[in-house]
Write a structure and sequence with these properties.
Layout: E1 2-7, H1 23-38, H2 43-48, E2 71-76
């Protein structure tokens, strides 16, 4: 399973400094892109070969509110 580590950035938060719910999908897509790079299938190569890799499932388990600068571990697999 591929793990992508990042943190909550200002662009991911709402006015209270917490993760805006729809931003979880942007973070998931960012992790997916890094996964593709890790298997030598970056976005350029994907486009050249006219391949499609749809995301068919995304979920998040919230154990506590995520705030600005909180670390994240996103698993792709």
């Amino acid at each position: 399973m591929f793990e992508y580590r990042t943190q909550i950035r200002m662009r991911n938060t709402d006015a209270t400094g917490h993760l805006f719910f729809s931003e979880q999908f942007n973070l998931a897509l960012e992790a997916f892109e890094e996964f593709l790079v890790s298997i030598d299938m970056g976005m350029g190569k994907l486009a050249q070969e006219q391949m499609q890799m749809p995301i068919v499932r995304a979920e998040a388990d919230y154990k506590r509110p995520l705030k600005l600068a909180d670390p994240l571990k996103i698993q792709v697999g």
